[in-house]
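Project outcomes to date are best conveyed with an example. Our students and postdoctoral researchers have been running inverse folding experiments weekly, and each run begins with a structure described purely in tokens. The record below, which covers 348 residues, was selected by the lab manager from last quarter's runs and is presented without edits.
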């Protein structure tokens, strides 16, 4: 700030109330979506008064709008560390950024610590709880990338088909992943019978069952298997299965969502896409009802906003944007949350 390259900066420092004026200009630029102008005003005001909460918070929001999430995260961290601004409001934005950046383990660590202190404001408790539940799901073994390494220590020493089948039946989640991968190399009647038993048992994890069905499809297995998921039992013909990650309806929903949320908040759009594919994979091979892409796009929009902030009653407003019925959207939101809660219980 000490340079006089344009003859302006050193002069304005002399005026009283300068920081407030710069912050005001920053807020105006932000509202007008002139994000680089806003960033410049907030940077200047923060340099002049580093402890000014609005200036520092303005840097966070502007960087988010510019999709500079790591920069926004750093500003949040420094505000929390220095005790600047409303702690819980800053924490809420910080945790939301961690979710968008995929740092779910850090989200879980932070929120578990905060909640253990029992100092959480009542009006923010639900939002933080939802973020914590989402992070726990995303850090669980079954939500991890299917190509992640299997815990070698947990499966070393196994050599016979029976031992692998026993691990599939009684092992922990990561061990079941490993067992399916190992057993997929053995296309025997004994192995297929084990698959049949696993798929129809009521207490087995629905996501593991989805992975097993996909494996059978990839192995070009033929025939009908009985599957139990979320209280329902039905038959599945393996050769008729569609690849869930290329499911036509799933893609239609993403396309509808992109028209609204993709333009409004690209980072939030990326986050709720993960929620959507996770939800579809849990339901697989069933499709969500109703088969109305606008309903589910609106529901994902609502769910994403609920993860990002604590504002309520968004269903009617968002439903109108997607030209659909609020009642249907609300049912879809409840359905996704119910599935999430069920999966969370199976992981405990």
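After processing, the design step wrote out the following sequence:
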């Amino acid at each position: 700030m000490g340079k006089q390259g344009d003859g302006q900066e050193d002069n304005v420092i002399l005026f009283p109330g300068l920081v407030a004026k710069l912050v005001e200009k920053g807020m105006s630029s932000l509202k007008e979506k002139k994000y680089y102008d806003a960033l410049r005003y907030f940077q200047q005001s923060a340099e002049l008064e580093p402890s000014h909460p609005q200036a520092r918070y303005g840097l966070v929001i502007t960087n988010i709008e510019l999709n500079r999430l790591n920069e926004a995260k750093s500003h949040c961290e420094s505000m929390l560390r220095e005790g600047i601004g409303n702690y819980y409001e800053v924490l809420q934005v910080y945790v939301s950024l961690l979710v968008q950046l995929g740092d779910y383990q850090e989200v879980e660590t932070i929120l578990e610590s905060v909640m253990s202190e029992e100092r959480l404001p009542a009006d923010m408790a639900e939002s933080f709880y939802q973020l914590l539940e989402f992070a726990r799901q995303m850090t669980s073994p079954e939500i991890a990338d299917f190509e992640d390494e299997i815990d070698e220590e947990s499966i070393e020493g196994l050599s016979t088909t029976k031992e692998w089948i026993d691990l599939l039946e009684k092992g922990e989640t990561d061990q079941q992943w490993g067992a399916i991968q190992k057993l997929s190399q053995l296309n025997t009647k004994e192995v297929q019978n084990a698959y049949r038993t696993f798929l129809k048992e009521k207490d087995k994890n629905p996501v593991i069952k989805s992975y097993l069905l996909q494996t059978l499809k990839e192995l070009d297995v033929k025939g009908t298997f009985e599957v139990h998921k979320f209280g329902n039992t039905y038959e599945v013909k393996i050769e008729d299965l569609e690849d869930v990650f290329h499911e036509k309806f799933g893609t239609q929903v993403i396309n509808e969502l992109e028209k609204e949320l993709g333009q409004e908040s690209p980072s939030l759009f990326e986050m709720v896409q993960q929620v959507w594919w996770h939800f579809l994979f849990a339901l697989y091979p069933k499709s969500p009802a109703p088969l109305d892409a606008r309903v589910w796009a609106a529901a994902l929009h609502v769910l994403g906003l609920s993860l990002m902030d604590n504002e309520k009653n968004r269903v009617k407003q968002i439903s109108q944007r997607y030209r659909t019925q609020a009642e249907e959207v609300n049912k879809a939101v409840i359905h996704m949350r119910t599935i999430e809660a069920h999966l969370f219980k199976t992981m405990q």
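The first strand starts at residue 224 and ends at 229. Residues 1-14, 142-158 have pLDDT under 50 and may be disordered. The training component of this project remains on track.
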